[in-house]
Amino acid sequence: MCNPTTKGIAVVTGASTGMGAVYADRLAKRGYDLVLVARNEGRLKQVASRIWEETRREVTVLPADLNNPADLAKVETLLKTNEAITMLVNNAGVGSVASVLQADVATVDAMIDLNIKALTRLTYAVAPAFAARKNGTIVNIASVVGIAAEMLNGVYSASKSYVISLGHSLQKDLADKGVRVQTVLPGATATEFWDVAGYAAQKTASITMSAEDAVDAALVGLDKGELVTIPGLHDGDAWERWEADRRALSKKFGNAKPADRYEVKSPQAA
């Protein structure tokens, strides 16, 4: 599948539209061949055709509903067995703006399956293969609402907090294995995400970034070696301070005795 000048194969999920389609375009122009994954085969073929015409990179279309166990297993098998794969972009995801009083629990459950379960299974499929070859890149798309949890639906925000936490753990586990892990936290981005989430007006709001700008910034962040990339955060040092405070705080949790403010008397003191 790869031609002699390729950087390998990049697998992009959610590649039929939005940031996924932009990632496919940009990675092809960077010299990657592609496997594009999404439910909508017709749209995937349109993206693939356009990329082939512009870049002459090899593009394989893999229609799959990642909420379907058989389809998910198909993509997992590809990631485990195709040694030409050098990058996974876990972009597929869905969101909501509905509160717990409005949201349908079945819809929320499907969101968890896609945003957390599918992303985790694909990551776990490819990480050992990358580690064995001591080469590979995993890009997981989170969101700023993984930090700003009150902004949208709580389960959506929590699913993106999960992606951020998973990224930290993966970076620890894979740092010495030759595997790069980047977590990308876009803010509001002008994609069909908002149509599905139930707030299409956000696509044209003044704070909303284009998908092209979001992906281009994320790829520059990858080039710079950023572990976490937040395209819309202009003060990059703010994230570094946040991370330093978080890591410092995490060292203060290991105490056998409750804090004095809780006025808990141990049996020995009674």
Summarize, please.
This protein is α/β, with parallel strands linked by helices. The protein has helices at 18-29, 41-55, 69-81, 105-133, 154-174, 193-197, 211-223, 236-250, and strands at residues 9-13, 33-38, 59-63, 85-90, 136-141, 179-184, 228-229.
Ordered list of secondary-structure elements with their pairings:
Blueprint: E1 9-13, H1 18-29, E2 33-38, H2 41-55, E3 59-63, H3 69-81, E4 85-90, H4 105-133, E5 136-141, H5 154-174, E6 179-184, H6 193-197, H7 211-223, E7 228-229, H8 236-250
Parallel strand pairs: 1-2, 1-4, 2-3, 4-5, 5-6, 6-7
Helix pairs in contact: 1-2, 1-7, 3-4, 4-5
Q: Describe it for me?
A:
The chain is built from 8 helices and 7 strands; from the N terminus they run βαβαβαβαβαβααβα. By secondary structure, the chain is of the alpha/beta class. It has one domain (9-262): NAD(P)-binding Rossmann-like Domain (Rossmann fold, 3-Layer(aba) Sandwich), CATH 3.40.50. The radius of gyration is 20 Å and the shape is globular. The model has no long low-confidence stretch (mean pLDDT 92).
Secondary structure tally: strands: 7
The fraction of residues assigned to DSSP E strands is 5-15%
Order of helices and strands: EHEHEHEHEHEHHEH
Secondary-structure content class: alpha/beta
Main CATH class = Alpha Beta
CATH architecture: 3-Layer(aba) Sandwich
Q: Which word captures the global form?
A: globular
Taking Cα atoms only, what radius of gyration do you get, to the nearest Å?
A: 20 Å
Instruction: Give the % helix.
Output: 40-55%
Strand order of the largest sheet: 3-2-1-4-5-6-7
Q: Which fold name fills CATH's third level, the topology?
A: Rossmann fold
Low-confidence stretches: none
Assembly form of the protein = single chain
